[in-house]
Amino acid sequence: MPRESKAAKIQRAAEIEQVMYELYGEGACSLDYRDPFTLTCAVVLSAQCTDAAVNKVTPTLFDAYPTPQALAGAKLEDVEAVIRTLGFFRAKAKNLIALAQKLCLDFGGVVPQDVDALQTLPGVGRKTANCVMCEAFRDPQGIAVDTHVYRIAHRLKLAGPSADTPAKTEAALLAVYPRDQWLFINHQWVHFGREYCQARNPKCVECPVGQKGLCPSFSPA
What we know:
Order of helices and strands: HHHHHHHHHHHH
Low-confidence stretches: none
CATH superfamily of the largest domain: Hypothetical protein, domain 2
CATH class of the largest domain: Mainly Alpha
Radius of gyration: 19 Å
Number of helices: 12
Helix content: 55-70%
Number of domains: 2
Shape: elongated
């Protein structure tokens, strides 16, 4: 593919988003949650774990600990028992309790509506903070870059070889997408990654983005 100008890349990104919107609309969160607090907990639990697995344990978790105050006073072994089927459950249980305690101590028991403040919570990195800002508050302050978004951004060549971290990939995407689309990209691309652009054996022949000539990695064979 010849070197692409920034204007051409922005135009191609817009056309890709049109395809994504036609496929998935605004997209939908795959995690079950009840409010900003339970969403934050669910996203923390989803690290290196499928959303489906998280959704199996969160009803029990949220019934037992529906508020930061309730979870802040939980016994570690009790939380571990609820989420034991998830990977890294011991570390995640510890983070959840510490997260709830910090919310109570520093934020009045309320999830902060700020991407930087969210990242002061135990277990919350930029991806989780972006997810919460977009999904819970509809106030995008970035794009959540998970494994799907990272993979797709690079296959679409919207992020170059030097964007070799999630943070750099996010910066590349923010440069080509307007803020009003930041809300949708993670949800849309997660669905797209599962349906077409899998890590192994992507379904290029069936891919609506590739069929429109918008993917430099498109391989019809």
